[in-house]
C-alpha cells in the first residue's frame, strides 16, 4: 500500500471513528510549549521493563489518535469458535501544538510528514490500565530518512487509552473491529557526546 493510500485510509478512519477524541484532545490537552514542536527531551516515567538505557535520549514525541484493528480468526482451542486477533494500528500523529506530523500503521511503522520512518519490533509490554492496550517498549528494526524519525533506536508507547479487542467474540472469520485508542509515542536516539 502506498503512503498516500495509507494516509487516506488513516484519515477516513479518524473521520469516522475518532474525531470526538481529537476534539477532546485538542481542547483539553496542555503540553509544554517548546521552540521545536514535537520535541520534549524528557523521557516519560515508565515501569523498569520499559526503560531505555542512559545512553539514549528522546529525539521526538508524538500523540496518536486512531484505531487498533482486530480480525476474527478460528480459535486454536476450538476451531468452531472465533477469537479476535490483532491486525494493525491506524493512527494520525500530532505534535505538541496539535498539528499533524505523521501516521502510524502496520509494521508497526511510524512515518513523518517529511517521509522519514521507523519500523519497530516489540521488546516488552506492561498493562498499566486494564481498560487500555499495554504500554510498550519497541526496538527499531529499520529507519529511513532523513527526518525526525531517522536514527531512532527505541520507541515507547505510553499513556494509552482504549484500543482493547471487543469483549464479545467475533461471529465469523474475517470480521473486523476498529477500536479507538490514543497513546503517546516517544522516539529515542543514541545520545551524542
Task: Give the SSE map.
Elements: H1 3-28, E1 56-74, E2 82-94, E3 100-105, E4 109-112, E5 117-126, E6 135-144, E7 154-162, E8 176-190
Antiparallel strand pairs: 1-2, 1-8, 2-3, 3-4, 4-5, 5-6, 6-7, 7-8
Structural notes for this entry:
The protein has 193 residues and is mainly β. It has one domain. Helix content is 13%, strand content 45%. It has one helix and eight strands. The chain has one helix spanning 3-28, and strands at 56-74, 82-94, 100-105, 109-112, 117-126, 135-144, 154-162, 176-190. The chain has an eight-stranded antiparallel β-barrel. β5 (117-126) and β6 form a beta hairpin. Residues 16-40 have low confidence and may be disordered.
How many angstroms does the end-to-end distance come to? Answer: 39 Å
Shape: globular
Strand content: 35-45%
Strand order of the largest sheet: 1-2-3-4-5-6-7-8
Low-confidence stretches: 16-40
Strand tally is: 8
Please identify the structural class as seen in this structure: mainly beta
Helix content: 10-25%
| Mean pLDDT figure | 84
The main pleated sheet reads as: 8 strands, antiparallel, barrel
The number of distinct helices, counting runs of at least 4 residues, comes to 1
Amino acid at each position: 500500500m502506498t503512503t498516500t493510500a495509507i494516509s487516506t485510509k488513516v484519515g477516513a478512519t479518524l473521520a469516522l471513528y475518532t474525531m470526538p477524541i481529537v476534539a477532546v484532545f485538542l481542547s483539553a490537552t496542555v503540553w509544554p510549549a517548546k521552540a521545536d514542536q514535537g520535541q520534549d527531551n524528557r523521557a516519560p516515567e515508565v515501569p523498569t521493563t520499559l526503560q531505555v538505557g542512559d545512553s539514549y535520549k528522546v529525539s521526538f514525541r508524538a500523540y496518536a489518535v486512531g484505531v487498533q484493528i482486530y480480525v476474527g480468526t478460528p480459535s486454536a482451542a476450538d476451531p468452531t469458535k472465533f477469537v479476535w486477533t490483532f491486525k494493525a494500528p491506524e493512527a494520525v500523529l500530532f505534535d505538541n501544538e496539535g498539528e499533524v506530523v505523521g501516521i502510524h500503521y502496520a509494521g508497526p511503522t511510524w512515518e513523518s510528514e517529511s517521509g522519514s520512518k521507523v519500523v519497530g519490533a516489540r521488546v516488552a509490554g506492561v498493562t498499566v490500565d486494564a481498560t487500555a492496550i499495554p504500554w510498550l517498549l519497541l526496538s527499531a528494526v529499520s529507519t529511513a530518512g532523513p527526518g525526525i524519525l531517522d536514527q531512532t533506536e527505541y520507541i515507547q508507547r505510553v499513556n494509552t487509552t482504549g484500543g482493547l479487542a471487543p469483549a464479545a467474540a467475533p461471529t465469523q472469520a474475517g470480521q473486523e473491529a476498529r477500536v479507538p485508542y490514543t497513546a503517546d509515542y516517544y522516539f529515542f536516539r543514541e545520545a551524542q557526546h
